[in-house]
């Protein structure tokens, strides 16, 4: 297996334009030259003024990727195929992430995609992160969501809202070795995320004491760092919630690990806080502004989940279609029958539509334009497509598709979570409907 090392290089740019950093993942046996002379989209992971991105290189399709994004896609595809795929079934059966996979993600530079090079990251675009999530999900949704939550939620919260001191302290660790987790949901606080009971109170020294429990927390079994939301003043409702940077070593307890239908290798645990003392400096943003942080970050996270669902659908489609062309019945490949071809064509069309919804939301986010409605649409539709296509993929492969031998059934199991986490499908429908009403002046 070729070694895939990820040197972090800064993309060349015009002196008058802020040059984005670019991620390079090159095989040790084949060096990839930097396309400095070729024009590349000057997209940044941070929100910028929309007029900075008014067709800088002419009108492009949503499928148009920069040279850096194209190379990233190919490199992640190699990593997923050569490093992740051989371990997928074992991890699924054991319901445990292989530590070597997590280490590999860090070594490839895939855990600090939008983080600046000054903090050990790659400084790439938000779309670059979406590409990584999609490509990993084609092989294993568990690895994909681990990378997704770490990048689009944990790292982004610190980059956008934390003090310089917190960024300087934690982002280099999160880019190179420390896995992060996002602790928002609670037993009584699911879709109503701000009905939380976890409390935060200041002690006599001005530090914070956190008490309570979180549940359904992704990455929690392996994480050493947590973004934690807690209520400081219930009388203020959601305006009493604050966000904190919490190290596991501060006293975080990882409790029950859930046994799930799908994404089994991704840890989902209850996390307890019993008089956990957090330094005053570890408050993220302003006191009482945690709700604003959570809302804005989850909008970005939903685009990531959309990418994960697109990857699941594409992975199931490709694996099943290849099998259907290899299997012969009545003297010809099963996939050559018109009834099968029509189903496959419909599935391919749905996948493409879902992908374009996801890419559109990602580009809107990069351009600093409103994207909340598009993110909700991307998530709800891509989760529906993932369930539909992966279910059809099982049928296209017949009896073999129903067994665990081919791994096709795993895509269907993994797809179901897309309608649930980071905002259920009905929550997405509610968001879309409200924004439609506003746009129509109703």
Automatic annotation (TrEMBL):
GO biological process: carboxylic acid catabolic process; fatty acid metabolic process
EC number: 1.3.8.5
Main location: mitochondrion
UniProt-listed Gene3D superfamilies: Acyl-CoA dehydrogenase/oxidase, N-terminal domain, Butyryl-CoA Dehydrogenase, subunit A, domain 2, Butyryl-CoA Dehydrogenase, subunit A, domain 3
UniProt domain Acyl-CoA dehydrogenase/oxidase C-terminal: residue ranges: 288-434
Catalyzed reaction equations: butanoyl-CoA + oxidized [electron-transfer flavoprotein] + H(+) = (2E)-butenoyl-CoA + reduced [electron-transfer flavoprotein]; hexanoyl-CoA + oxidized [electron-transfer flavoprotein] + H(+) = (2E)-hexenoyl-CoA + reduced [electron-transfer flavoprotein]; (2R)-2-methylbutanoyl-CoA + oxidized [electron-transfer flavoprotein] + H(+) = ethylacryloyl-CoA + reduced [electron-transfer flavoprotein]; 2-methylpropanoyl-CoA + oxidized [electron-transfer flavoprotein] + H(+) = 2-methylpropenoyl-CoA + reduced [electron-transfer flavoprotein]
Compartments where found: Mitochondrion matrix
Cofactors required: FAD
Residues annotated as domain Acyl-CoA oxidase/dehydrogenase middle: 181-276
UniProt subunit comment: Homotetramer.
Name of protein: Short/branched chain specific acyl-CoA dehydrogenase, mitochondrial
